Amino acid sequence: MKKFIFIFIALIFTLNIDAQERPAMHAIVFADTDDGKIGKGEAVSLDEFKDFLQTVCNTINHELIIDPYLYTGTICRSKELIDLLDEFECDTNDIVVFCYLGHGTRSHQDTSVFPQMCLHEQSQSKYVPLIDVSKSLAQHRAKLTVVIGDCCNYPGEFVLPKVSKDQPAAATKIPSATISLFKELFTNTTGVITMCATKPGTYGWSNSATGSYFLNSLMQAIEETPINSIKPGNPWESIMDIVMKDLWQYNFKDKNNPSKTHKMSPCYRIEPRKKKTKPNGIIPPRVNNLQQLISDVANANLQDSERSERKKQVLLELTPNSLIRTVSSDGSVAFNRPYKAEAYLDRIIKLRDIININIKTIHRDNSGKITLLEVHEVYKINQ
Hints:
The chain contains ten helices and 19 strands. It is of the alpha/beta class. It folds into two domains: 24-271, Rossmann fold; 290-381, Nuclear Transport Factor 2, Chain: A, CATH 3.10.450. Strands 1, 2, 3, 4, 8, 10 and 15 form a seven-stranded mixed β-sheet that branches. Strands 9, 16, 17, 18 and 19 form a five-stranded mixed β-sheet that branches. Helix 6 (213-224) packs across helix 7 (235-248) and helix 9 (304-317) runs antiparallel to helix 10. The termini are far apart.
């Protein structure tokens, strides 16, 4: 009996050590995907943002925890946000990302440059100021906190211009310089970054085909900016300067007055991390869902034995005849013939230049078993 207790305690101790080895990125997302005007566009942005965060996490060797914090459709509401902020806990070595996709507004008496989030609420009394979210999350003193409000900052109607999409690619390839920038922004930076798509008194734009102009510009800046153009010690300030210049080139037509155009101008604030640390709270349980498992198979930062173990767990979710097929980043174009799932995963484990695999579509049979996974691969470019 004593031997059993000793082994049990040793096992718990080992699991606790393993849990601390890889810090987490807690991604809290509230997306108003049910809105009649902007819902489709926000859904597009949400999918792209999730893939983007998973790629960042694999690059900097953090575990992405997003499912417990994903609030869309009918649960994108102020009560859910307030309850989550009250209960949220993280470790001081973790990264916290908050992103709101939806309508925003402000009152003439607001002193903050950041807007109030409408959160699909009909009553103005239920709107939540973005700055309140930033202050609440900052209290946890995570290594880095990034707060994004992709919404209007003006008490007016949302406008949705239309643009065409780029030709999809078979796989996303990320240069080594971009990987270095990911690490500079998310690993080597501490503090609280709060940003919004629009300054006080201005409009924000999105569309149903490509999603949010602001969020797309932000992700593009992080992915494509040469690291040698980043200001030493101020990487996020450099990124926001690029985003502001990119958005300023557009002239958005007023929905009610086509002869009138608007500019889109974001606002942001960067605060250093406070020296005082908060004792570690309860860390939410790691989420081992299918997306996380298959991302770990593609994570070259993990040992081969760990990747093989994740492969076994993925196969437990599939059937012996399940197939995996590669598609474009938006899932609209399929490439090559489908692989047998195990053969596909065996190939991925041998790759050293792959960063992530994003699941785009899951096909199931009548009994609910997975028959086909459509995935998009992300690679680094060795320069």
